[in-house]
Amino acid sequence: MATPAAPGAPCPRRLLLFTKPGVPGRVKTRLTTELTPEQAAAVHRAFVGDLVERLAAGPFDLRIAWALEPDEPLPTVAEGGPAALRQEGTDLGERLFRGLSAAAALDGGARAVAALGSDHPTVDLEVLAAAFERVEAGADVVLGPSFDGGYYLIVTAASALRPELFAGIDWSTERVLEQTVARIEAAGLRLQRVAPALDVDTPEDLRRLAAELAAAAPELCPRTRRVLSTLGLGTTGGPGPDAAGGAVPAERYGA
Length: 255
Known about the structure:
Largest sheet: 7 strands, mixed
Number of strands: 7
Number of domains: 1
Low-confidence stretches: 1-8, 237-255
CATH architecture: Alpha-Beta Complex
Helix content: 25-40%
Oligomer: single chain
Shape: globular
CATH topology: Spore Coat Polysaccharide Biosynthesis Protein SpsA, Chain A
Order of helices and strands: EHEEHEHEEHEHH
Distance between the termini: 26 Å
């Protein structure tokens, strides 16, 4: 777990988990070719719950950045859980820039800030730590590419943050990574990458995740395992919420 900075001192590392409340019809909609909206929302809530539990033990200060409707309140997080903030902006690029800028300024500031998506529930803490370490060793920006042409992780030095890195990007297309790399290079910033990963967006991705978890250590992603089990996707794990999309016990992140 990250060691808190002294009062008023910059935090070495701060990570924002970018996500949405687990409302049926608003999350994991590409899964609804085979799942109901309630089932897809249960998958999303399990992903977020597993990620928050793992990330809370990471070597950084964790915050959750929620994408909300204008009058929607911040979701309630379990007592002692990470602090939350609201995503602000008209598109994902603006929300990323404004969120990372806010993270860099919070509580005395941070020297390196990161944004992580919630579509990759098995992300390894060692990968995240390595990304921060590369920034601390001199990289301005570190990207974690996704196999679909986007990226699941961006870590930047606070001094390297600038809006043009996120502007004019064709979000949700296979051009996101390519365009972002071009923006970074045009700004004269030093770029490095960590291992690529697969976002879990489609039913095929979900089956691949189930196979990955079946071969992994049994303590990895317990909430996700339980939900997948109710959907007939074989992983080890105990009983979970009902297959119609009942709530994930205990945390209910984003419910």
